[in-house]
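Researcher: I'm preparing a figure for a lab meeting and need a structural model of a single chain. I don't have an experimental structure, so a prediction will have to do for now. The sequence is pasted below. Please return the structure as tokens so I can convert it later.
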Amino acid sequence: MNVPAWVQDSVFYQIFPDRFANGDPANDPPNVQQWGERPTVLGFQGGDLRGIGQRIDYLVDLGVNAIYLNPIFQASSNHRYDTINYYMIDPKLGSSKDFSQLVDKAHSNGIRIILDGVFNHCGRGFFAFVDVMENQQDSPYLEWFHIKRFPLHAYEGGEARNYRGWYKLKSLPKFNTQNPQVREYIFGVARYWIEQGADGWRLDVPNEIDDDSFWAEFRHVVKQTNPDAYLLGEIWNVDPRWVGSNHFDGLMNYPLRDALLELIVENKISSSEFMRKVQSIVEAYPQENTFSHYVPLGSHDTPRLATILDGDQRKIKLFNQMLFSFPGAPAIYYGDEIGLKGEKDPDSRRAFPWEEDAWDPELRNFMRQLIQLRKTYIELRRGQVRFLKSEQSGAVAMARTYQGSSVLLVFNATNTALDFSLPVVELAWADSTPISDLLSKTRHVVTEGKLGLHLPPYQALMLAPA
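Model: Understood. Here is the structure written out token by token.
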């Protein structure tokens, strides 16, 4: 199996293209909203590919080295999951030349780019579906979709009843991926954009295409084009079926996010239950896939972290320290590093505020530190996961160990301060060994095989031998 080694050394940055940066106002639609206006389902704010390219220096300074772009192909909506033309950059985002220049600039700065592949469904404006609407039962493209009866009504109100639409939405007709012509078309798209320089695909709702042979062939086409391309599946639960030689290199690891929310926000599980849950997530997959998961704390599909945590800096930092300690590629949703807020979509898709007085500079600096630590310590990228037993309830201790060297994350998941001793014998940290917190530089010393620790509420330590 060919899992690209670069993924586990990556820190991803997810960008919703219409809302990150406007580099070319000439391609804005005439009804463009003012930048920073409260987002709506239908409104565009003018972000584009040129804007992303102009802000590469910002991303380099932050320290990320991979970008996941929400859909960029021609579509009628700002989210572009209703694709009209898979071979064309949406004109409101720019041109093929703009895409090429963005890829070149990203690659020259050591940043890879993966694209959002929406192959379960398309938009009503997709050429084959337009033909079906125009020619009804006489269309040569009938077998491209799941047509139930005629006449086909794709615009009148209500659910899609005489054809299958994703979530019964009339605007999102579902492909018939059993059709060889449809498969040939989709595989051609997959190959084409890898040839244009994309470094992989994030596959939208791949479980809706419940066909192992489809994904095996998709993988073969992509890996034949570029063996180092990354295939990422949007699977929301723990399901090992979706990784391996017939599917994807890694999955979007929402289950870790869920476990953190259950522990720290919802108070549904204890610290010991949290550790067992995380251990089960790690052990569910082969190591090469666990280390190739994409690990998000937020995305275009979730409320923003700063909103969920009500702006509590302690909890925001705690979530991110866990993120950067966990196996897989940590993922930052654009703007989370500066404390951008947002309820569920469309509000989670606000425009990035480029006026620095709107940023949380302390949080951004903290994120830069975490990214640098991830790059510096190979244990955090390649290390085996083990949880240390603590008699202190509310405390979580997780080590990443690589070739005998360990980094230890210890955090307090409660709203009260904790004072306790943590056994570290299994890490081979000898008595009198000085141990440093990698962020605060505070020192601890191993005594009788234990570390004496004081943790204020919702605080974490990242510990390693000094």
